Structures are given as C-alpha cells and as structure tokens.
Task: structure prediction
Amino acid sequence: MIYRDYGTTGKKVSLLGFGGMRFQNIDNTDECVQAMVTAAEGGVNYFDTAPGYFETKSESVFGHGLAELRRRKLPYYVATKTFKTTEDSIRREIEAQLKRMNVDVIDFYHIWCIIDLSNWESRKKDGILGVFRKLKEEGIIRHICISSHLIQDEINTLLTEDVFEGVLFGYSAYNYKCREKAFDAIRSRKLGAVVMNPLGGGIIPDHPERFDFIMRPGESAVEAALRFLWDHKDISSTLVGFRSEQDVKDALAAMENYKPRTEKELAEAKEKSEASMEGICTGCGYCDDCPQDIPIPQYMDAYNQKLFQPDKSDAIKERLHWHWSITPAIAGKCTECGQCESACTQHLPIIERLKHIAGS
Result:
C-alpha cells in the first residue's frame, strides 16, 4: 500500500480508500464487515461513509466494521458528512452518527455536497463554519473538510474561508478536464485531496474503448482508471465504492502491481484523450457565460450520459437530479444566441442538445 500526506494534518492516508456507498448487500452485516477487514488487512486506512448512504445503514455497518478493526488492532481513519447547516441540527446528526459508527470522534468531517455557490452562501448564513469550528475545539471531530461538485475555479470561493483541511471532489479520467482548476486550487493550498467516483460512476469500465488513452498493455479498464489517478502525486486518497470483498481484492491487486507513470507520461496520456472523447463534452467551461444563466457545463455533462448510455431513456434526468440537483426545464430558456457554441473548443451542437434536454 502507498500512503500519502493528508494535506498538512500530519496524517498519512492510504492511496486506496474505502467508500461505503455501494455495498452489494447492505443487510448482510457480516459480508460488509468482511470487505472492510480485507481492505484494512491490505493496508487501507481511510474509510468514508455518509448518513445518506442506504438511509444511514452504511454508517451502522461501519460501526460493526470499525469495532472489528479495533479488535484486530488494524489502524483506520473514519470520514463522514452532513447536509445539516444549523448548530442544533448538526449536533443532533453527529450525535447519531457517533452512536451508529460506535466511535468517540470523527477524523474527517465534511460539509457535504456543495453543488453551486448559492447553496454555499445559504449554508454559511446558517452559521455552519462556526459550528464546525466548535466541534473541532470540543474534540468531536479532528479535521474540517468539504465535499464539492463545483467545476472550474469556483472551488476557490470555498477555500478562501481558510478553515478547511481537506476536500472531497469528483475527479477521474472521465471528467478531469473540468476539474483541473479545482484540483489546482486544492494543490496550491496544500490541502488533503480525496477523490470520489474514480470510475466515472461506472462509465469507464462500461466503455473502455473511450478510455484507451489511459490503458497500458495488460490493464483492465478499472486498473487503468485507478492507476491514472494514483499517478497524480497530489491526490491523498481515491475512494472506491466497494460492492463486495472481491472488489476489494481486485483493487488491492491493482495497487500491488502498480507502476507509476512519470509526469511526462501522464501528460502524454491526457493529450491522447482528445481523439478518444470526440463528441463528449470534456467540461472545459468556456461556455459557462450564458446570458440566460443556463448552467450549460452541467447540462452538457448530463447529455454525455445519453451518449454513453443510449439505451437508458432516463440517463440525462438521473444525472441532473442526483449529480447536479437541477431540472431539465431550465435548458428551455435558451434563446439560441449561439454564444456558447462560438466559445466551445470542441464545436459541439450545444443548442441542439439543450433542446433535447428541455424536452426530456
């Protein structure tokens, strides 16, 4: 196992992290715990969950799993999150989380899922930062972190608060272009950087031909996707949502046989992505200046799902709802001024795609 610094906290976390959002059989506690034990025995020490995973069942499973790790004297750090914003609601939630997970303190506690800046401003007005500071002073949490889906350099607005010690954000071979600036902002502040959805929500293993630019001889798409991220030296940990113990074993095998690329080789792999991703919005963000305030990058990301999953009729709606928390309706505000298409570096038919989304 490879261990990296979690920002400037002094903690070393495993480059392969355990995500508790995809257990294959959440009601089989023994099976889930065994997956956690196998991961810890393989050197994984970063375990991440959230109250919304399986309606709190994931945190409860973690309670059993972490107790077993302590019994076996296997080291771990635990991370979880909250959507709550006021002091009373956060304290009620974290008290329940501590009981569910059978721990006295949470190592990495995240303000969960910042999707847009208006959402962030609303949470700030409720006093969330002050509450998190109190929780740390009281020893209930050890490190203040944030989970964000913001693209481009919007994440800078969050990080100017100078309170966060780590960031959890989506980053993969699928969306790295629209997250590079966010990654740069995290790197420049020397924060812990944990990435989620390393397989692009399943898109990468389901469409390996699109991602041949990251694959080296003999690699599976999953191995290639993980190793592509591990080649980024500023990433502290990559969260894999393990379904079963076998998934854990497969990921540990990918780590065992991992041979890092040089910086030059990584840059060359990214350059090759242009041909492989033809027609796919890579999220450069140049279209993100719509006179009608249409969040075009988010809509184009959702349209990608139609291209990747042509047989799934609700692919766009699911992406908009679960990933971006917006509806198709806003796309109907398009006046066809053409500004976005003029700015698009890939010359995508954005107007046509917006029409399709609005009518979906």
The chain has a mean pLDDT of 91. The beta strands are 3-5, 12-14, 16-19, 46-48, 77-82, 106-114, 141-148, 166-170, 192-196, 237-241.
